[in-house]
Structures are given as C-alpha cells and as structure tokens.
Design brief:
With 450 residues, the protein is mainly α. It contains 23 helices and two strands.
Length: 450
C-alpha cells in the first residue's frame, strides 16, 4: 500500500475530534449532576440503607424544588400509600392529574394510582369513579378487578356480575365467585317478604351455568353444594318436600365434604315424609365413608331417639375410638343430658328407658366401684365409661360436671377457620368476613382439620 502524505493530517484530526466529543459529554454529565439537589442523593442513600421515612422527607424536598419531576412524584405517592399515609398519597397523585402539560400515558398512570389510593383509604365511591376513568386504557384489566372488589364490598351483586362478564371478555379465565354472586341474589329473593320464588329460580339457573366450568373439580364443590342447598330452600317454600329432600340428598353425592352443612335438615326432611328410619340409615352410611362431627352428632341423637340409649352409645363408642375428638364427646354428653331431662318430664318414657337400660349386666369393674348402688345407674352411663377417662362417674351430676369441664376446652375448637387469613368464626361462611376470599372456609371445625 502506498503512503499518502495527507494521512499525517487526517489521523490527528480524528483523534482530536474524539477527544473534544468526550470532553463535551463529560461536561454535560457534570452540568446535569450539579443541577440535581443534594437532597436527591440523600434520599437515594436513605433508601439503600432501608430508611424509608428519611428518604421520603428528602424526596419531598426535591419535589418542592423541582415540580416537574414526574417520576419522583410517582415514587413518593407509592411510598406514602405503602406507609398508610393515604391523604399525602392522594395529594401527590392529584397534583399530577391536575397538570395540564402531563403526557397522556402519565395521566393514565396517575389516575390509576389515585384510584388505588381511594380504594385503600376506604373511599369506595371515589375509587369507583376513578377506576371507571381508566377502563379504556392499558389499566382496564386491573381496574375491572378492583371494581369487582368494590361491588362485592357494597353487596351490589348485579353490577358485580356485569363486571365479571366484562373481565371474562378481556381474559379467558374462570371466575369461581360468579356462581356465588348468583347465589347471593337467590338468597336475597328467598329472604324477601314475601319470597320472590321466580327471581330465586332464575338466579339459581344462572348460578348453574356459571358453575359448569368448575363442575367435577374439587374447587367447584362449594358452589355446587350452595346451589343445591338454596334449591332445597326454594322447594321447601314451594311446598315440595320431596324436591327438598332430593336436593339435600344430592349434596352427599356431589359435594360429600359439605354434607355436614345439610345433615340436620336432610333428616328433618325425611321425617316430614315419615321416612326417618330410611334417613338415619342414609346418614349412617354416609358417616361411614365421610366421618364428620356434625354428621356424628345427628346420627347419635337420632339413634338415641329411634333405637334407645344402648345402640346410641355403641355407635358413639365405636366412632370416637376411630375418630377421637373432644367436640364429639362434648356433643354426646350434651345430647345424653338433654335426653335424661326429657325422660324425667315424661315418666312413661323414663320407665321404658330404664327397662332397656337394665337389660344387660353391669361391668364387673363398675360393680366394684359402686357396690349396692347399681339400681341407680343406667346402662348408657356404663357404656360411657368405656370411652371416658377412668373416674367414678355414676350419677347424672357427674356427667354434667364432666360435660361442663370438657365444654370449656371445646369452645375454642368449635369454630370454622379461613385458610387464607385464619379468621375464625362460629358460623360457616361462603365468603370470609376477614379477607373477603370465597370458598376458603372448610366445612369442618378446627379440631377436625388439625
């Protein structure tokens, strides 16, 4: 390659141009850095050192010096909301929304943040209005989900249903609580004065359609059980006892875990048709496959009424040995004491019960404990000793004392609990009153699930 003399001029010029460009860039960076107040760097330092309170104070000072710092305002608003300072968070985001020169994308973000501020502050009406302003923006999906929560908290079930339909048009995902919204409408119709049976039937038809997507899945059992229970109530109000029994009995098949919620009503339905013996057999067979405390209690009480004390105690002893629970023992003692009081009020029944009670010999251990006093003991009490701790219990007063002692310990176990937040309640809820989650209560008491 031939050497050209002009290269001696061109190469130094290129190097000089690069050096000048680098100097200009460095000077620009230094100039921009000098324009940032020291509070900005202090705030960053506080954040890195996990001191959010001092960081907020530093950033607030920066925002006062330079109102145009949009990103900093968003960061401040988020920090305020995270700390629970909702009034300050609302003020920051409102100042952004009121700026005429704010770009459209930033305005939409500010509106969405402001709506979340209102929602967390409990200002549901203003949150609803603000979320509606971003329904046609990129925040449409989270806005619709937030509106669903708002309508739930207001028990505005028709608007909640419409919001769910709008959400399903945006995203292809099941919404399990939709069936519960329809059930809430049905409950309201059945509880009206007078009951609106037509509206209840239509709401339950809609609930059936909503539950189709989850039918056959474990998470769909709750909605199917609730629909069947409400249809049973509808049949009862329509003077259709056979329909009521059929719907209640269907719960044992489609949602066996929720059978404990209907066993008492199911037995009463059989009794209203003169079929209490068949009803007892159905419940005993179900308990053998799906043992639950409420089913045990109903079966024991009905056995006591239909077949006498001895058969009831045999069932109780076998059941408590297989599934020992203090709650079960507490219910047995409660039922037995109540039955004895009723027997005392009806002498004829009492004598018949005593005749049944003395049909078999007392255990030898019991004879040694109470010599000469066996005529005052019932066979049921002797059977109770087989499942109770060793003690000299011979009189009704002893059973009453034992029951009162056990009951004090079982009160804290006789509750339902939410799987999400742990909220405990004496009554079963389809929606947790604590965290508003659906289907998070198991239809079993605390002692049964621990």
């Amino acid at each position: 390659m031939d050497f050209e003399p002009w290269w001696l001029i061109f190469v130094p010029v290129v190097f000089a141009a690069g050096w000048i460009a680098a100097r200009v860039d460095v000077r620009q960076m230094l100039s921009e850095t000098r324009t940032l107040p020291n509070s900005y760097f202090k705030g960053l330092n506080f954040l890195l050192n996990e001191e959010p309170d001092r960081a907020i104070d530093a950033f607030v000072e920066v925002a006062k010096l330079d109102p145009e710092t949009t990103e900093l305002h968003f960061a401040l608003g988020s920090l305020f909301r995270r700390r629970g300072e909702m009034e300050r968070a609302i003020r920051v985001h409102q100042s952004l929304v009121s700026r005429a020169d704010l770009p459209q994308a930033d305005r939409e973000s500010a509106l969405h943040e402001l709506a979340q501020d209102f929602l967390k502050a409990g200002m549901l009406d203003r949150a609803e209005q603000t979320f509606e302003q971003v329904l046609d923006t990129r925040f449409a999906i989270p806005a619709v989900r937030a509106l669903i929560r708002i309508y739930e908290s207001e028990h505005d079930w028709p608007r909640a249903i419409e919001a769910v339909k709008r959400l399903r048009a945006m995203v292809d995902e099941p919404v399990p609580q939709l069936a519960h919204y329809q059930c809430e409408q049905a409950e309201a119709a059945l509880g009206a004065n007078p009951p609106d049976l037509t509206a209840a039937d239509q709401a339950l038809d809609a609930a059936d359609q909503a539950a189709v997507a989850l039918r056959g899945q474990p998470e769909g059992q709750a909605s199917e059980a609730r629909i069947a229970i409400l249809r049973a109530n509808l049949a009862r109000l329509s003077n259709n006892p056979e329909g009521e029994r059929a719907h209640l009995a269907s719960v044992l098949t489609i949602a066996p875990d929720y059978a404990s919620l209907v066993v008492s009503d199911l037995l009463e339905s059989y009794r209203s048709l003169g079929q209490e013996v068949e009803g007892l057999n159905v419940l005993r067979a179900h308990y053998a496959r799906y043992p639950a405390l409420d089913t045990f209690n109903v079966v024991f009480r009905e056995l006591r009424a239909q077949q006498g004390l001895q058969q009831a105690w045999v069932f109780a002893r076998e059941s408590l040995r297989a599934h020992p629970t203090l709650l079960g023992l507490d219910r047995v003692l409660e039922t037995e004491l109540a039955s004895r009081k009723n027997d005392e009020k009806t002498p004829g029944m009492a004598s018949e019960s005593q005749a049944d009670d003395h049909s078999e010999a007392q255990p030898e251990a019991l004879q040694r404990q109470h010599p000469g006093g066996l005529h005052a003991l019932a066979e049921g009490q002797a059977q109770a000793l087989a499942i109770l701790p060793p003690a000299e219990l011979a009189l009704d007063a002893d059973l009453s004392l034992l029951r009162s002692l056990i009951h004090k310990h079982t009160q804290r176990l006789d509750r339902y609990a939410c799987r999400v937040c742990g909220f405990e309640a004496r009554h079963f809820y389809w929606q947790c009153p604590g965290c508003n989650s659906w289907e998070t209560y198991e239809p079993r008491r605390l002692e049964e699930i621990k």
